[in-house]
Amino acid sequence: MSTISFKRPLVSDIPVAVAVTVWLLVTANATFWTKGMLYFGAHPTALAAFAAAVIALHVAAFLSVSVKYFIKPFYIFAIFAAAAASWYADKLGIIIDRTMIGNITSTTVNEAKHLLTGRFVTHMVIFGVIPSLVVAWVRIDHKPFGRKVMEHIIVIVPCLLLAGGLVFLKYPGFSSTFREHHDLLASLNPAAPVVAAVKYGKTISAETNIVVQALGTDARYSEPGTHPGKPHVLVVVAGETARAQDFSLYGYERETNPVLKSHDNVLTFADTTSCGTSTAVSLPCMFSAFKRTDYSDAKGKGTEGLIEVLNHAGISTQWWDANTGSKGVAARTVELTFASGDDPRFCSNGECRDDVLVEKLKQELPKVTGNTVFVLHQIGSHGPAYYMRYVEETAPFKPDCRSSDFADCSKDEIRNAYDNTIAYTDKILGDIIDALSARRDHILGAMIYVSDHGESIGENGLYLHGAPWFMAPAEQTHVPFLAWLSPELVIDEQTDIECLRARNTGPHSHDNLFHSVLGAMEVDTAIYDQSLDVFAGCSAHRASQ
Question: Maximum CA pair distance of the chain?
Answer without folding.
Answer: 102
